[in-house]
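Mods, move this if it's the wrong board.
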Amino acid sequence: TAKDKDLNIVFIPKSSDQVFWDIMRSGVDEAIKEVKTQNNIIFTWRGPSYNDDTNAQIQILQTYSRPNVDAIIIAPTDRERLVAPIQKAAAQGIKIIVVDSAVDGTAHQASITTDNYASGQLAAKHLANILNNQGQVVVFRIVAGSASTDDRAQGFIDYLQKHAPDMKIIADVYGGGSRGKALHSATELLKKTPEIDGIFAVNESATDGVLRALRNASRAGKTKLVGFDSSDFLLDGLKTGDVDGLVIQNPRQMGYLSIKAAVAAVNNKATTTKTTFTEAKLITKENYLAPEIRKLMSAH
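Not the wrong board. Structure tokens:
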């Protein structure tokens, strides 16, 4: 059969400073290869440098909201501020697929994400087990308005209130959207708060910053750390016992399914907005070397 027309697809991640997006990109590339038999895809990948730069993300979205673009896949840095620019793009006939983090409104055709609330509960359960359901803990977030990470924090908080009421959340902080900002915020937090039994960090950059701060303050291993996502640095922390657990997602599957959803939407095979949840798993020193876990964490 003759190939259908070229499809112009733009992918706007949250940032370019995290391994998470590299892994997602590998799933995207895999799907593009498969789709090529039906549709030739002209593909653009462009995101802000850091995941707290919502203005930059909105500008990128506006730049690509033009008639020759068929679909935009976006991981919204802010669930409210992206609503209007997404609606504007959709009004031009561009199909919108939301990946990784939710956005308000109904202008998008599909949403592909981890069940972030359930993932936060998974982290809370693990930290509660390590601390025997008692102690003083901290929720360490990135930036206000980020749906995925706020849902994780909420799942964590709700789990402790219900199942481990003797664990007290003594601080709930927004540490910033880059590793450097997270390190700075975590360093200040540790100076002010000598008694912290456990910390839950909501994403890769937050976990990275908290781990460095704990090591600098000689508190790594003493203060229990459960984080989110993986990188070589965080896996090293798991190995040494400075990180007690990481909730890992399946960014490759998210990337893969987002391309499939975009193509289906452009070819009018998409139905009303539907959400697809991809898996999340808790990894520890005991299981992180298992082959199925390693596959989730590498971009190759």
